[in-house]
Design a protein that fits this description.
By secondary structure, the chain is mostly beta strands. It has helices at about 130-135, 135-140, 150-155, 260-275, 275-285, 325, 355-360, and strands at about 5-10, 20-25, 30-35, 40-45, 60-70, 70-85, 90-100, 110-115, 120-125, 145, 165-170, 190-195, 205-210, 220, 220-225, 235, 250, 255-260, 295, 305-310, 315-320, 330-335, 335-340, 340-345, 355, 365-370, 375-384. Helix 4 (about 260-275) packs across helix 5 (about 275-285).
């Protein structure tokens, strides 16, 4: 019978993105990994896990080069035991072990667990053992490419878990409201693997279902955005010839709502039409700013909801409201200082918006990959 795994998660190790703990090797080494719906690789830092020190690990001739945000890593693909909980795991999981990586690639974690689809998990077939050979970028460029099965996909195929998972998170940023953020419940959550609806203690009420339109990332169709009762802001489809699969994705590895620049500019203008100070505060105290907005100057009761309108199943529109307490994060820059987690991409994403933790922390989100011939849907319910 497939297992239902409830994995404790925390945003403290990385300072924002959520992490969980996996056990690697026959004499398990516990490693903290970023939980990312925007990628598919299971990778760990080669300084934290040595494949040759684990008798149950087999090296291979497969290597990977992965670009993640502003960083990159090169890694050898090995086969090793990887577990999530007692009795839940794989004895021969495909695990990427880094031998070269950008500084601070994983932040305070020791790796990453990608939860997206197989299209994002490929490797290069090399002539010899990739861990001992440690191939360069130039050597990989001429190699044949092979597809891998991501860890979650392999778990499902082995019958260990069902083909769905769910996020229960409270924040987009570490809360600095207490002396010890690691013990603050606001900085912790749950990743449910192999289900979602069964965890009734994590949500209330019915689900709102958003259609997934492609299986590269968790690709959605964002129809419009609305600031309070202001007129809807239409979101354009991708320009003709775009290599991207849709105009938006849902990504747990992004700590903000990163809108295509024209959409962001229209959102800020709509806030400014309600009150000029709103627009100024959102721009001046966006995530990444050196100083946050003092709580005394932020009356969240006066701020409107931000509504995201998506294409639902059957073509109907569905709306998810994001309350001010989620697109603003209190005690984020410092205790008593808030940051806005609304951003524009400066045109870098080619018209695609990335909908990150302000959406996922506002709801209990079930990624049900069993529907629509494996493409799936995302179901959102009120977080308990």
């Amino acid at each position: 019978m497939a297992a239902l795994v409830k994995l404790p998660i925390s945003n403290v190790p990385t300072g924002g993105g959520y992490t969980g703990v996996i056990a690697v090797g026959s004499q398990p080494v516990e490693l903290t990994v970023i939980l990312d719906t925007g990628s598919s690789t299971l990778a760990v830092d080669g300084h934290a896990f040595d494949p040759l020190a684990c008798p149950a690990t087999r090296t291979t001739n497969l290597a990977q080069q992965v670009q993640y945000g502003a960083g990159r890593w090169l890694c050898a693909v090995v086969q090793a035991p990887v577990g999530l909980a007692p009795g839940v795991g794989l004895e021969q999981a495909q695990l990427a072990v880094t031998y070269e990586e950008s500084p601070g690639m994983f932040g305070g974690a020791q790796g990453i667990l990608g939860l997206a689809y197989a299209r994002l998990d490929s490797a290069y077939v090399m002539p010899a053992d990739s861990w001992t050979s440690r191939y360069s970028v130039d050597q990989l460029a001429t190699a044949t490419v092979a597809d891998l099965a991501p860890y979650f996909t392999a778990l499902e195929r082995a019958g260990v878990v069902s083909n769905k998972f769910a996020f229960y998170a409270r924040r987009s940023a570490v809360s600095l409201a207490t002396d010890d953020p690691a013990t603050d419940p606001a900085n912790h959550g749950v990743l449910v693997l192999g289900g979602g609806e069964e965890a009734t203690e994590l949500y209330t009420g019915p689900f709102t279902t958003v259609e997934l339109v492609h299986d590269v990332w968790y690709n959605t169709c964002l129809v419009a955005v609305q600031v309070g009762a202001r007129p809807r802001i239409p979101v354009a489809p991708l320009p003709a010839g775009s290599a991207l699969a849709s105009n938006s994705i849902v990504d747990s590895g992004t700590n903000c709502l990163l809108f295509a620049q024209p959409v962001y500019d229209a959102i800020i203008a709509a806030f400014g039409a309600l009150e000029p100070a709103f627009a100024a505060q959102l721009r001046a105290h966006a995530v990444g700013a050196a100083v946050g907005l003092d709580h005394a100057q932020l009356d969240l009761a006066r701020w409107p909801d931000l509504r995201l309108v998506f294409r639902g199943c059957g073509g109907a529109e569905v709306t998810l409201a994001i309350a001010p307490a989620h697109y603003w994060q209190l005690d984020a820059a410092a205790r008593g200082q808030a940051l806005a987690y609304l951003c524009g991409d400066g045109g870098a994403r080619g018209g695609q918006s990335i909908l990150g933790l302000p959406l996922l922390s506002a709801y209990y989100a079930v990624f049900d990959r069993s529907q629509d011939d494996g493409r799936g849907v995302i179901k959102f319910a009120t977080r308990a």
